[in-house]
Predict the 3D structure of the following.
Amino acid sequence: MEEIIIRRYKKIDRPFVREIAWDTAFIGKPADVFFEDKDILMDFLTQYFTDYEPQSCFIAESNNLVMGYLIGAKGVSLLKDIFQFKIFPKLLIKVIKRGTLFRKKNIIFIFNCFLSFLRREFQMPDFNTAYPAILHINIRANFRNLNAGSRLIAAYLNYLSQEKIPGVHLATMSDEAGEFFRKQGFIPLHKGKRSYFRYILQKDLPLYIYGKKLQ
Ligand SMILES: CC(C)(COP(=O)(O)OP(=O)(O)OC[C@H]1O[C@@H](n2cnc3c(N)ncnc32)[C@H](O)[C@@H]1OP(=O)(O)O)[C@@H](O)C(=O)NCCC(=O)NCCS
Protein backbone atom coordinates (compact mmCIF):
# COMPACT_ATOMS: atom_id res chain seq x y z
CA MET A 1 0.00 0.00 0.00
CA GLU A 2 1.36 3.41 -1.06
CA GLU A 3 1.65 6.22 1.47
CA ILE A 4 -1.56 8.17 2.11
CA ILE A 5 -1.23 11.90 1.56
CA ILE A 6 -3.63 14.44 3.08
CA ARG A 7 -3.70 17.67 1.09
CA ARG A 8 -5.84 20.68 0.14
CA TYR A 9 -8.59 20.21 -2.45
CA LYS A 10 -7.75 21.27 -6.03
CA LYS A 11 -10.13 21.94 -8.95
CA ILE A 12 -8.92 18.77 -10.66
CA ASP A 13 -10.39 16.71 -7.75
CA ARG A 14 -13.96 17.83 -8.46
CA PRO A 15 -15.11 14.80 -10.54
CA PHE A 16 -13.58 12.38 -8.00
CA VAL A 17 -15.31 14.07 -5.07
CA ARG A 18 -18.62 13.87 -6.95
CA GLU A 19 -18.05 10.23 -7.85
CA ILE A 20 -17.26 9.23 -4.24
CA ALA A 21 -20.21 11.29 -2.96
CA TRP A 22 -22.54 9.47 -5.37
CA ASP A 23 -21.06 6.06 -4.48
CA THR A 24 -21.63 6.61 -0.73
CA ALA A 25 -24.84 8.74 -0.65
CA PHE A 26 -27.18 5.93 0.36
CA ILE A 27 -25.82 5.29 3.90
CA GLY A 28 -22.36 4.48 2.54
CA LYS A 29 -23.63 2.84 -0.70
CA PRO A 30 -24.41 4.19 -4.24
CA ALA A 31 -27.27 6.66 -4.66
CA ASP A 32 -28.84 4.91 -7.67
CA VAL A 33 -31.05 2.99 -5.20
CA PHE A 34 -33.11 6.16 -4.68
CA PHE A 35 -32.16 8.69 -7.39
CA GLU A 36 -31.67 8.90 -11.14
CA ASP A 37 -29.52 11.85 -12.34
CA LYS A 38 -26.05 11.88 -10.86
CA ASP A 39 -25.23 15.41 -11.96
CA ILE A 40 -28.23 16.97 -10.23
CA LEU A 41 -27.83 15.10 -6.94
CA MET A 42 -24.11 15.89 -6.85
CA ASP A 43 -24.77 19.59 -7.50
CA PHE A 44 -27.20 19.48 -4.61
CA LEU A 45 -24.84 17.69 -2.23
CA THR A 46 -21.37 18.99 -3.14
CA GLN A 47 -21.51 22.12 -5.30
CA TYR A 48 -21.38 24.64 -2.46
CA PHE A 49 -18.24 23.06 -1.03
CA THR A 50 -16.27 22.46 -4.23
CA ASP A 51 -17.26 25.65 -6.06
CA TYR A 52 -17.87 28.26 -3.34
CA GLU A 53 -15.60 27.22 -0.47
CA PRO A 54 -12.86 24.98 -1.91
CA GLN A 55 -10.35 26.30 0.66
CA SER A 56 -12.27 24.37 3.35
CA CYS A 57 -11.99 21.02 1.53
CA PHE A 58 -9.32 18.34 1.94
CA ILE A 59 -8.35 15.23 -0.02
CA ALA A 60 -6.85 11.88 0.98
CA GLU A 61 -4.75 10.54 -1.89
CA SER A 62 -2.81 7.36 -2.39
CA ASN A 63 -0.78 6.52 -5.48
CA ASN A 64 -2.39 9.48 -7.33
CA LEU A 65 -5.89 8.14 -6.57
CA VAL A 66 -8.39 10.22 -4.62
CA MET A 67 -9.41 7.73 -1.92
CA GLY A 68 -11.55 10.07 0.16
CA TYR A 69 -12.49 13.63 0.94
CA LEU A 70 -13.63 16.00 3.64
CA ILE A 71 -15.72 18.88 2.35
CA GLY A 72 -16.41 21.61 4.85
CA ALA A 73 -17.86 25.06 5.40
CA LYS A 74 -16.73 27.58 8.02
CA GLY A 75 -20.24 28.91 8.53
CA VAL A 76 -23.61 27.30 7.88
CA SER A 77 -25.33 30.71 7.48
CA LEU A 78 -23.19 31.62 4.46
CA LEU A 79 -23.72 28.15 3.01
CA LYS A 80 -27.51 28.53 3.36
CA ASP A 81 -27.50 31.99 1.73
CA ILE A 82 -25.38 30.89 -1.23
CA PHE A 83 -27.41 27.71 -1.66
CA GLN A 84 -30.72 29.58 -1.57
CA PHE A 85 -29.81 32.52 -3.79
CA LYS A 86 -27.14 31.17 -6.15
CA ILE A 87 -27.13 27.37 -6.35
CA PHE A 88 -30.82 26.51 -5.99
CA PRO A 89 -32.21 28.83 -8.74
CA LYS A 90 -29.71 27.49 -11.31
CA LEU A 91 -30.33 23.93 -10.14
CA LEU A 92 -34.07 24.36 -10.61
CA ILE A 93 -33.57 25.46 -14.23
CA LYS A 94 -31.22 22.50 -14.83
CA VAL A 95 -33.77 20.11 -13.26
CA ILE A 96 -36.53 21.43 -15.55
CA LYS A 97 -34.34 21.26 -18.69
CA ARG A 98 -33.21 17.70 -17.94
CA GLY A 99 -36.66 16.41 -16.96
CA THR A 100 -35.26 15.13 -13.64
CA LEU A 101 -38.63 15.52 -11.93
CA PHE A 102 -40.39 13.33 -14.47
CA ARG A 103 -38.43 10.21 -13.59
CA LYS A 104 -40.40 7.77 -11.43
CA LYS A 105 -37.55 7.01 -8.99
CA ASN A 106 -37.01 10.72 -8.33
CA ILE A 107 -40.72 11.48 -7.89
CA ILE A 108 -41.00 8.73 -5.26
CA PHE A 109 -37.90 9.98 -3.40
CA ILE A 110 -38.98 13.63 -3.43
CA PHE A 111 -42.50 12.67 -2.33
CA ASN A 112 -41.01 10.76 0.64
CA CYS A 113 -38.78 13.75 1.52
CA PHE A 114 -41.93 15.88 1.48
CA LEU A 115 -43.59 13.43 3.91
CA SER A 116 -40.51 13.75 6.18
CA PHE A 117 -40.88 17.52 5.97
CA LEU A 118 -44.57 17.29 6.98
CA ARG A 119 -43.53 15.07 9.91
CA ARG A 120 -41.16 17.91 10.96
CA GLU A 121 -38.10 15.67 10.74
CA PHE A 122 -35.98 18.50 9.31
CA GLN A 123 -36.66 20.74 12.33
CA MET A 124 -33.67 20.82 14.65
CA PRO A 125 -32.21 22.89 17.47
CA ASP A 126 -29.88 25.64 16.26
CA PHE A 127 -26.25 24.54 16.52
CA ASN A 128 -24.91 27.27 14.26
CA THR A 129 -23.94 29.74 16.98
CA ALA A 130 -21.79 27.44 19.13
CA TYR A 131 -20.73 25.15 16.26
CA PRO A 132 -20.86 27.28 13.07
CA ALA A 133 -18.73 25.05 10.82
CA ILE A 134 -19.88 21.77 9.26
CA LEU A 135 -18.30 18.88 7.41
CA HIS A 136 -19.05 15.85 5.26
CA ILE A 137 -16.47 13.08 5.07
CA ASN A 138 -16.38 9.99 2.86
CA ILE A 139 -13.71 7.39 2.18
CA ARG A 140 -13.98 4.89 -0.70
CA ALA A 141 -15.17 1.53 0.65
CA ASN A 142 -11.93 -0.37 -0.03
CA PHE A 143 -9.79 2.32 1.64
CA ARG A 144 -11.53 2.52 5.01
CA ASN A 145 -9.81 1.84 8.36
CA LEU A 146 -6.43 3.04 7.11
CA ASN A 147 -6.48 6.25 9.19
CA ALA A 148 -7.32 8.46 6.21
CA GLY A 149 -10.57 9.60 7.88
CA SER A 150 -8.95 10.58 11.17
CA ARG A 151 -6.14 12.40 9.34
CA LEU A 152 -8.64 14.35 7.22
CA ILE A 153 -10.51 15.37 10.39
CA ALA A 154 -7.24 16.46 12.05
CA ALA A 155 -6.29 18.59 9.00
CA TYR A 156 -9.74 20.24 8.93
CA LEU A 157 -9.85 20.93 12.69
CA ASN A 158 -6.38 22.45 12.52
CA TYR A 159 -7.51 24.69 9.64
CA LEU A 160 -10.68 25.75 11.52
CA SER A 161 -8.66 26.56 14.65
CA GLN A 162 -6.31 28.75 12.60
CA GLU A 163 -9.38 30.49 11.18
CA LYS A 164 -10.61 31.05 14.77
CA ILE A 165 -13.86 29.14 14.24
CA PRO A 166 -15.33 28.25 17.68
CA GLY A 167 -16.89 24.88 16.80
CA VAL A 168 -17.96 22.39 14.16
CA HIS A 169 -20.90 20.00 13.82
CA LEU A 170 -22.05 17.30 11.42
CA ALA A 171 -24.97 14.98 10.76
CA THR A 172 -24.81 11.26 10.17
CA MET A 173 -27.36 8.48 9.84
CA SER A 174 -24.81 5.78 10.62
CA ASP A 175 -24.29 4.29 14.10
CA GLU A 176 -20.83 3.08 13.01
CA ALA A 177 -19.73 6.54 11.87
CA GLY A 178 -20.80 7.82 15.30
CA GLU A 179 -18.14 5.61 16.88
CA PHE A 180 -15.55 7.09 14.49
CA PHE A 181 -16.56 10.69 15.38
CA ARG A 182 -16.52 9.98 19.13
CA LYS A 183 -12.91 8.78 18.70
CA GLN A 184 -12.13 12.14 17.05
CA GLY A 185 -13.41 13.98 20.16
CA PHE A 186 -16.92 14.85 18.91
CA ILE A 187 -19.84 14.63 21.34
CA PRO A 188 -23.48 13.75 20.49
CA LEU A 189 -25.64 16.90 20.46
CA HIS A 190 -28.96 15.63 19.15
CA LYS A 191 -30.75 12.50 17.95
CA GLY A 192 -33.63 12.57 15.50
CA LYS A 193 -34.97 10.26 12.83
CA ARG A 194 -35.45 10.24 9.07
CA SER A 195 -38.24 8.29 7.43
CA TYR A 196 -37.63 9.20 3.77
CA PHE A 197 -35.91 5.87 3.01
CA ARG A 198 -38.67 3.83 4.70
CA TYR A 199 -40.07 2.81 1.30
CA ILE A 200 -36.71 1.15 0.50
CA LEU A 201 -35.54 -0.11 3.91
CA GLN A 202 -38.94 -0.74 5.58
CA LYS A 203 -37.59 1.13 8.63
CA ASP A 204 -36.68 4.64 9.77
CA LEU A 205 -33.06 5.70 10.17
CA PRO A 206 -31.59 7.56 13.12
CA LEU A 207 -30.11 11.00 12.51
CA TYR A 208 -27.31 12.00 14.85
CA ILE A 209 -25.74 15.43 15.20
CA TYR A 210 -22.22 15.47 16.61
CA GLY A 211 -20.25 18.56 17.60
CA LYS A 212 -16.83 19.64 18.76
CA LYS A 213 -15.76 22.96 20.31
CA LEU A 214 -12.45 24.28 19.02
CA GLN A 215 -11.47 27.38 21.02
C1 LIG B 1 -16.54 6.89 8.80
C2 LIG B 1 -15.29 7.05 7.91
C3 LIG B 1 -15.15 8.49 7.43
C4 LIG B 1 -14.06 6.68 8.79
O1 LIG B 1 -12.87 6.85 8.03
P1 LIG B 1 -11.71 5.77 8.08
O2 LIG B 1 -10.55 6.25 7.31
O3 LIG B 1 -12.29 4.45 7.68
O4 LIG B 1 -11.39 5.73 9.66
P2 LIG B 1 -9.96 5.63 10.39
O5 LIG B 1 -9.18 4.51 9.78
O6 LIG B 1 -9.31 6.96 10.42
O7 LIG B 1 -10.43 5.21 11.86
C5 LIG B 1 -10.14 5.96 13.02
C6 LIG B 1 -10.72 5.24 14.22
O8 LIG B 1 -12.16 5.16 14.09
C7 LIG B 1 -12.59 3.80 14.10
N1 LIG B 1 -13.60 3.58 13.08
C8 LIG B 1 -13.56 3.94 11.79
N2 LIG B 1 -14.66 3.53 11.14
C9 LIG B 1 -15.41 2.90 12.06
C10 LIG B 1 -16.66 2.24 12.01
N3 LIG B 1 -17.35 2.15 10.85
N4 LIG B 1 -17.14 1.67 13.15
C11 LIG B 1 -16.44 1.75 14.33
N5 LIG B 1 -15.24 2.38 14.43
C12 LIG B 1 -14.74 2.92 13.31
C13 LIG B 1 -11.35 2.99 13.73
O9 LIG B 1 -11.44 1.67 14.23
C14 LIG B 1 -10.23 3.78 14.35
O10 LIG B 1 -10.12 3.48 15.73
P3 LIG B 1 -8.69 3.45 16.48
O11 LIG B 1 -8.16 4.86 16.39
O12 LIG B 1 -9.03 3.03 17.87
O13 LIG B 1 -7.85 2.47 15.73
C15 LIG B 1 -15.32 6.08 6.70
O14 LIG B 1 -15.42 4.75 7.18
C16 LIG B 1 -16.46 6.33 5.72
O15 LIG B 1 -16.29 7.10 4.79
N6 LIG B 1 -17.62 5.68 5.91
C17 LIG B 1 -18.77 5.76 5.00
C18 LIG B 1 -19.40 7.13 4.92
C19 LIG B 1 -19.73 7.74 6.27
O16 LIG B 1 -20.28 7.08 7.18
N7 LIG B 1 -19.39 9.06 6.41
C20 LIG B 1 -19.59 9.79 7.64
C21 LIG B 1 -20.91 10.43 7.69
S1 LIG B 1 -20.82 12.18 7.30
Residues 76-98 form the longest helix (23 residues). The two ends are 36 Å apart (CA to CA). The helical segments are 14-24, 38-52, 76-98, 104-118, 148-162, 175-183, 198-201.
